[in-house]
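Fill in residues.
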């Protein structure tokens, strides 16, 4: 099945490790995401591949929409990824890469999902970039 990818980038004026640690903590994504979002770890294990979370967020007018999240990439401090399983949109992959550049860190976020649920990606504003710059 064809896949649609959306990519966002932002240059952050922080250290590589600080930026990676902040973004890889899924419980903090509500600080820079849009709409209502709450993410809780399913277990107390440290962040790493296989760690699971439960997300309840807002899609359009629906609040409290559940998603199961699972960390798929954890290569500190250069790559972090997770898979979100949504009841309607299926699996949506989120991968963040971190590259030192121009005295800061270039954060690239790639979001992949199948083209049948492409409307999900059209609803993602660029606040990712603005919020990361202000919060870090």
């Amino acid at each position: 099945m064809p896949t649609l990818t959306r990519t966002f980038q932002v240059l952050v004026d922080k250290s590589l490790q600080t930026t990676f640690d902040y973004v890889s903590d899924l419980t903090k994504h509500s600080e820079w995401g849009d709409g209502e979002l709450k993410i809780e770890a399913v277990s107390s294990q440290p962040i790493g591949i296989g760690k699971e979370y439960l997300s309840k967020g807002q899609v359009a007018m629906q609040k409290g929409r559940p998603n199961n999240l699972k960390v798929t990439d954890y290569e500190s401090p250069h790559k972090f990824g997770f898979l979100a399983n949504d009841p309607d949109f299926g699996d949506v992959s989120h991968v963040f890469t971190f590259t030192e550049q121009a005295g800061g860190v270039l954060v690239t976020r790639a979001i992949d999902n199948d083209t049948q649920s492409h409307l999900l990606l059209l609803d993602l504003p660029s606040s990712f970039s603005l919020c990361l710059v202000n919060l870090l």
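The first helix runs from residue 16 to 24.
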